[in-house]
Amino acid sequence: MFYDDIDPEALATGIVRLSGHAMNAVWETCAAKNMEVLADIHTHPDGAGQSRSDQEHPMVATRGHVALIAPRLARSPFDLAGVGVYRYRGAKRWDVLPSPRLRWLDISIRGEQ
Predict the structure, then answer these.
(1) 21 exposure class (CB count in 10 Å sphere: 0-12, 13-18, 19+)
(2) How many CA atoms lie within 13 A of 17 on its CB side?
(3) Distance in angstroms (rounded) separating the CA atoms of residues 59 and 26
(4) Which of 30, 33, 63, 86 is buried most deeply by CB count within 10 Å?
């Protein structure tokens, strides 16, 4: 599910802003499909560090929620090295987690055994 699928105005200001009504729809959709939100992901034009806005306005302000930031506007969908991974601790505090290492994915894409 993309941010602008949830809220057509989500990207109108140049940063992601979801209305409370839109987030209610997310929770209702998840409940109806017996699913849950595990993480959110967005891109940055350069690196994968959190901006001040990222830190102060988590997409899901629930302790333990994971936020992913893809560098270089996610131009390479299979290059997960360098993806920023952050776990919300509450009260605008975050843990920085190691970037994913998915060698099995890289191998399967190139067709190696």
Answers:
(1) exposed
(2) 6
(3) 12
(4) 86
pTM: 0.77
- Give the list of residues 6+ apart from residue 92 with CB closer than 8 angstroms, or none: 55, 56, 58
Distance CA 33, CA 50 (A): 31
The mean-pLDDT minimum among 16-20, 36-40, 69-73, 87-91 falls in: 16-20
Name the pairing type of β-strands 93-97 and 84-90.
Answer: antiparallel
Q: Which residue has the tokens 């699913």?
A: 35
Location of structure tokens 């302000």: 61
